[in-house]
Amino acid sequence: MAVIHAFRGYRPGKALVDQIASRPYDVLNSEEAREEVKDNPYSFLHVVKPEVDLPEDIDLHSEVVYQTGRKNLQKLIDEGLFVQDRKAMLYIYAQTMFGKTQYGIVGCAAVDDYMNDRIRKHELTRPDKEEDRMNHIRVTNFNAEPVFFAFPDHPGLESIIRRIVSGPPEYDFVTGDGVGHHFWLVDSDRDIDLITEIFRKDIPVTYVADGHHRTAAAALVGNERKENNPLHRGNEEYNYFLAVHFPASHLTIIDYNRVIRDLNGLSPEAFLEALMRGFEIEEKGTEVVKPQRLHSFSMYLGGKWYALNARPGTYDDTDPIRSLDVTLLSEQVLGPLLNITDLRKSDRIDFVGGIRGLGELKRRVDSGEMKAAFALYPVSMKQLMDIADNGMIMPPKTTWFEPKLRSGLVIHDLE
Questions:
Q1: Rg of the chain, C-alpha, whole Å
Q2: What pLDDT, on the 0 to 100 scale, is given for residue 396?
Q3: Given Cys at both, which of 48, 108, 186, 252 links 25, Cβ 3.0 to 4.6 Å?
Q4: Residue 385 lies inside a defined structural domain of this protein
């Protein structure tokens, strides 16, 4: 069964928490991060993207980058801007976007659960990105950013969460993107015991929703320390890493769309004709088409929107992978018609998170940068968990979770 571990978190004071809390390291490039910290010396990006304090031509994976992150974190602690909680506890972190609030339990996950597949994955990771985050953890000695987990809904946990959040939060602020962030301390020994016992008895597995590289890096560093410690006992803090655990029904996966650079030598007319083998096509003109169900796409081509409904036999809803619309698009369009077979390496395709809206697809095609765009219906949490439970891997760029977790609300010391 899954482990959730109470810990003595380091947290910012209430006065500066809204300035310290930052977007996660992997949603901004270095240039964007430099712009974001320009007028904010407190931003946690100074810790998780420390190149913002170094010359622009710095090698992002050089030792000085990680040491700068360590120095910046230590400065926050030395100046009393981050203070360690007096006792081990759990926390509730809630986010409100578009009128919906999702509530997650902040507590450490177990390295052994990752190594034994009780923490289930649905994406491949790249060794270079793993190593980058591993070096950050090794040098700072902290899990500075939480990973984003889901677990099967449990009425007992839901009841505990609802009771705790009926009280006043420790933090409560709205970020510039309009997302509300709310944070409660779970410092009652009774509540901590109840939550950890429910996980131990009733939650067989948890799922990586977002942050596969951070998860892998945190678990691998913990395992590395275990193997290198001849006096290892099993209760050291490096056996755990920082995570926010959400009931699956709280989470929203939004669409993750595709833009195509060229039509592989086909004219728009010939491309449309070829698409008719796998889809029923309805021209919508300038009317924006947003997919309303699985196996129904929208396409923007030549200044017009089209509704594409997959014909029977082009998908298989009994197969966790072949039921995905990203698979359907690859098997019916990207591979056979456009000769785009490796989504990880091809420069003829790009991916646009649904948070940017369908207008971004239209803009990139109208600009001449891209030739066509496809909008997809979002993946469900059930599909994600079915794939992870079957030991399968989703195609690249399949899920986009919003809102993103803010970094710097609480961090975990590996000592």
A1: 23
A2: 85
A3: 48
A4: no
246 with 272, same domain: the answer is no
Q: How confident is the model at residue 345 (pLDDT cuts 50, 70, 90)?
A: confident
Which residues of 303-398 form beta strands (DSSP E)? Answer: 304-310, 349-353, 372-375
- List phi, psi (to 5°) of 227: -70, -25
pLDDT of residue 221: 98
- Is this model's pTM higher than 0.85 or not? yes
Residues 6+ apart with CB under 8 A from 347: 261
pLDDT single digits (tens) 257-306: 999 999 999 999 999 999 999 999 999 999 899 999 999 999 999 999 99
The residues near 89 (Cβ < 8 Å, ≥ 6 apart) are 6, 7, 8, 9, 185, 186, 187, 192
Neighbour count for residue 230 (Cβ, 10 Å): 5
Q: 212-228 and 127-140 helices cross at what angle (nearest 10)? A: 60
Q: How far apart (Å, rounded) are the C-alpha atoms in residues 47 and 70? A: 7
The CATH number covering residue 329 comes to 3.30.1760
pLDDT class for 211, splitting at 50, 70, 90?
A: very high
* Alpha helical stretches, state H, 203-285: 212-228, 268-275
Q: Does residue 383 lie within any of the structural domains?
A: no
- Which uninterrupted H or E stretch holds 284? strand 279-285
Clarify whether residues 170 and 38 are in a common domain. Answer: yes
What span, in angstroms and rounded, lies between the C-alpha atoms of 88 and 187?
Answer: 8
The confidence score (pLDDT) of residue 280 equals 98
Regarding whether 198 and 53 lie in a shared domain, the answer is yes
Question: Is 253 within 8 Å of 381 (Cβ atoms)?
Answer: yes
3-state secondary structure of 175: coil
Give the total number of structural domains in the chain: 2
Note down the domain range covering 55. 10-252+402-413
pLDDT at 222: 98
pLDDT at 126: 87
* Cβ contact 184:103 at 8 Å: no
CA distance 96 to 174: 9
47, 153: one domain: yes
d(CA 220, CA 386): 25
For 192, phi then psi, to 5°, come to -60, -45
Q: Is the dihedral of CA 241, 173, 38, 35 positive or negative?
A: positive
CB 322, CB 315: distance < 8 Å: yes
Residues 304, 285: contact at Cβ < 8 Å? yes
